[in-house]
Amino acid sequence: MLELRLVQGSLLKKVMEALKDLVTDANFDCSATGFSLQAMDSSHVALVALLLRSEGFEHYRCDRNLSMGMNLNNMSKMLKCAGNDDIITIKADDGSDTVTFMFESPTQDKIADFEMKLMDIDSEHLGIPEAEYHAIVRMPSSEFARICKDLSSIGDTVVISVTKEGVKFSTRGDIGTANIVCRQNSTVDKPEEATVIEMNEPVSLTFALRLQRWVMLGSTWLLR
């Protein structure tokens, strides 16, 4: 028996909305430690590793380890039916080929449930080795997402360069070039709005802008 109750339902909605652009089908693994997913995009360029820890749920019951294959587009469609303030509960019985999503309004005056068929997905769990990074950048995720969105209207790739002066985003396309520089700023009133750079040595790497859609979820990224 699996039963997970997440008070911050909007968190799961945002996660799925971002992941569905990278991964189509994936196995969600449930264990005593949490609700997790590991998958690669179709071009095998990006690896997604997600873990929602058990202590982050208001109620977490997982009687035995369980793997549920889901289509992320279909899952995202169902989650869109939940309000941003709704409480989301995920339920599945042992041996069942379906999973149930229940959405409850904060005032309990509206309850909806959706049932989705599970899939048989062959996947290999990949080990993610520990790595030493030349630079670690922390910045508001909304700002990172906006920069990538703006640059995607100019070019297809972005060069991210980290120096002591700041982090620079550059792109080049048929219509011209664009450069955006964010300088370190850790003196803002709200820590989550700060841009903090930890650098051992300068780094300059190129990324496809279409793979930057997920950045709205996180505000820390590492370069080596």
Automatic annotation (TrEMBL):
Name of the featured protein: DNA sliding clamp PCNA
Places the protein is found: Nucleus
Any GO molecular function: DNA binding
Record keyword DNA-binding present: yes
Keyword annotations of the record: DNA replication, DNA-binding, Nucleus
Underlying gene: LOC115719066
Protein role: This protein is an auxiliary protein of DNA polymerase delta and is involved in the control of eukaryotic DNA replication by increasing the polymerase's processivity during elongation of the leading strand.
Any one Pfam family match given in the protein's UniProt record, by short name: PCNA_C
Nucleus in keyword set: yes
Entry-linked InterPro entries: DNA_clamp_sf (IPR046938), Pr_cel_nuc_antig (IPR000730), Pr_cel_nuc_antig_C (IPR022649), Pr_cel_nuc_antig_CS (IPR022659), Pr_cel_nuc_antig_N (IPR022648)
Family, similarity comment: Belongs to the PCNA family.
PANTHER family named among the record's database cross-references: PROLIFERATING CELL NUCLEAR ANTIGEN
GO biological process, one term: leading strand elongation
Domain annotation Proliferating cell nuclear antigen PCNA C-terminal: ranges: 127-210
Positions of the Proliferating cell nuclear antigen PCNA N-terminal domain: 1-125
GO CC terms in record: PCNA complex
